[in-house]
Design a protein that fits this description.
The complex is a heterodimer of chains A (233) and B (292).
Chain A lengths: L1 H33 L2 H25 L3 H5 L6 H36 L14 H55 L2 H14 L4 H29 L4
Helix pairs in contact in A: 1-2, 1-4, 2-4, 2-5, 4-5, 4-7, 5-7
Chain B lengths: L2 E12 L2 E11 L3 E5 L6 H8 L7 E6 L2 E3 L5 H4 L2 E4 L11 H11 L5 H10 L13 H13 L5 E5 L7 H14 L6 E5 L3 H7 L2 E6 L2 E7 H7 L1 E5 L1 H10 L8 E5 L2 E6 L2 H7 L5 E3 L2 H10 L1 E2 L1
Parallel strand pairs in B: 3-8, 3-9, 6-7, 7-8
Antiparallel strand pairs in B: 1-2, 1-4, 4-5, 9-10, 11-13, 11-14, 12-13, 12-15
The chains are: A mainly alpha (233), B alpha/beta (292).
Chain lengths: 233, 292
């Protein structure tokens, strides 16, 4: 798994460095054009992991790399878990970068008397930035959880036709399910249970959601591992 | 270790193609050339051996390990592979390729890789996308050799190389074969390379092994007799060949006949010119020749 993660990161090394630069510029650009720090930080949070996910998958298809990689001393299982692992590393990197940049902007905003209000800690505090980062990470993980099994099974070229369809279907199913279900009641129940053990609802809600998304990501890796195991090159 | 590769009864079926119970052996200390026309089954055989496709039947033993599905990591550590294209990320550099090797192979020899790159004029900062096909194949070969494998599996490794570069690569492969326990399975369309380096030649056609012979039997003992139509009838009537065993290929100036012992043939038919056979001649007559 370590070999696969390193291989992925070496492959993307040059692209990642330029992507991180572009990411910061875009984050700041969106902040000013949308006049909201959360919006800019959300964009900044998802750009690099998304581009990493689809770029590294596209590299697999180029020049027979995916086939050749299996001749290296790594198993198919390690290929799959390594890919999920390398995306997680990039995601964590992006989370840290977004968090740091967000705080730098707020700190600078607070120190300038005439700074726009959306750049100050009054409008965008620690929790807002943390929530934005967490929400962005959740969106990336959910997208990866859906698309990676398809990419692993069919390769990026074929998956580009299948992933959007799968996303639409999942979205439709989600809307149908949550439209019918008594979601408020469900979450109220959960919140009450949490309050019973003396926890803060918002924090626990975030922790629960995070746990759910990570679980989904791991389940997705297990499915990918099964699908990739039977693929022929 | 007697055999580095031993495949028995290897079968694999696709729509419109099947490998039919292939037997293939690469003994230690041997370079085995694997030849055949396009679509004959060479690549499918190699991919089955490497675990890239799952064989439908048969047994594979690599470096004394029976392979059931994926090739174990411990076995892959001792195999160097060159496929028909340079597979490394085009945006990466030669140094990045070295980093991948270092992360993948426990026996990766950075200094040796550096020497090979120097020999092939592959600068560390050179990007893969800036390499010609030939240079890309050299990089792939340097990568395959730099962890000191015991077995090399090469799929068209010399394709795209100019004659001088091919000689250079063949020299490198000869150096590799200085160790008695090393072996090479080399699939190629450039049969003249095999004449320089191979010990055994296996030919596959339409998923079937057509011949599996020591190179010397093909290049030193066999021959091509250049006949007229009347000569062919005379040869058949003489009983020199078992019925149906003669392979003859007509062309504009006569008929070529493949003979397994050109010296015996020359003694029996002094008036019929007979030349040494090349692997290409042998292959052409075996695959396209009419059985008589």
């Amino acid at each position: 798994m370590k070999t696969m993660m390193l291989t992925d990161l070496i492959t993307m090394k040059n692209s990642l460095l330029s992507l991180l630069g572009i990411d910061v510029v875009l984050g700041i650009f969106f902040t000013f054009t949308m006049q909201t720090l959360s919006g800019g930080m959300a964009a900044m949070m998802v750009i690099v992991p998304f581009m990493y996910l689809f770029s590294i998958s596209a590299y697999d298809d180029m020049g027979g790399w995916e086939r050749f990689r299996l001749t290296l001393p790594i198993t198919r299982r390690q290929v799959v878990w390594g890919r999920y692992g390398s995306l997680a590393v990039v995601l964590l990197l992006s989370m840290a970068l977004t968090f740091v940049v967000g705080h730098i902007i707020v700190t600078v905003g607070d120190s300038i008397p005439d700074a726009p209000s959306y750049l100050t800690s009054t409008a965008t505090g620690f929790y807002q930035i943390a929530l934005t980062v967490a929400l962005g990470a959740a969106i990336v993980l959910l997208t990866a959880a859906v698309s990676l099994p398809l990419i692993m099974r069919f390769g990026m070229t074929k998956a580009t036709r299948i992933v959007p369809v799968a996303m639409v279907i999942i979205l439709a199913i989600g809307i149908a399910f949550f439209g019918e279900a008594d979601v408020d009641h469900l979450f109220l129940g959960l919140s009450r249970s949490m309050l019973d053990i003396g926890a803060d609802t918002l924090e626990l809600g975030i922790v629960l959601a995070g746990f759910g998304v990570v679980t989904l990501y791991v389940v997705s890796a297990l499915i990918s591992s099964r699908l990739y195991g039977s693929r022929e090159f | 270790m007697e055999h580095l590769i031993k495949a028995r009864g290897l079968t694999k079926s696709y729509d419109g193609f099947s490998l039919n119970a292939i037997d293939l052996t690469v003994p230690a200390g041997t370079v085995v050339g694997f030849v055949g026309s396009n679509g004959a089954g060479k690549t499918t055989t190699l991919r089955s051996l490497l675990g890239l496709v799952c064989a439908d039947g048969g047994t594979i033993t690599l470096l004394d390990e029976v392979i059931d599905g994926d090739v174990p990591v411990s076995v892959k550590q001792r195999i160097g592979v060159v496929l028909d294209t340079c597979a490394f990320n085009r945006e990466g550099t030669v140094r990045d390729v070295s980093l991948i090797g270092r992360s993948a192979y426990t026996a990766w020899d950075e200094a040796f890789f550096g020497r090979l790159c120097e020999r092939f004029e592959l600068a560390p900062k050179k990007k893969v996308k800036d390499l010609s096909r030939g240079m890309g194949m050299k990089l792939s070969l340097a990568f395959a050799l730099a962890h000191h494998p015991q077995l090399l599996i090469l799929d068209e490794a010399t394709a795209g190389l100019d004659p001088l570069a091919r000689d250079e690569v063949l020299d490198l492969l000869r150096d590799f074969m200085k160790h008695d326990d090393h072996g090479i399975l080399m699939s190629t369309h450039i049969t003249s390379d095999l004449e320089h380096i191979a010990d055994e030649v296996i030919c596959i056609d339409d998923g079937n092994i057509m011949f599996d012979l020591p190179k010397d039997v093909i290049c030193d003992e066999a021959g091509v007799a250049h006949c007229r139509a009347a000569d062919v009838e005379r040869i058949i009537e003489s009983g020199f060949f078992e019925p149906g065993a003669m392979r003859a290929l007509s062309h504009a100036y006569g008929i070529d006949v493949l003979v397994s012992d050109r010296f015996a043939f020359a003694r029996a038919f002094e008036d019929i010119p007979v030349d040494k056979a090349s692997i290409e001649d042998y292959m052409a007559l075996m695959l396209k020749g009419e059985a008589r």
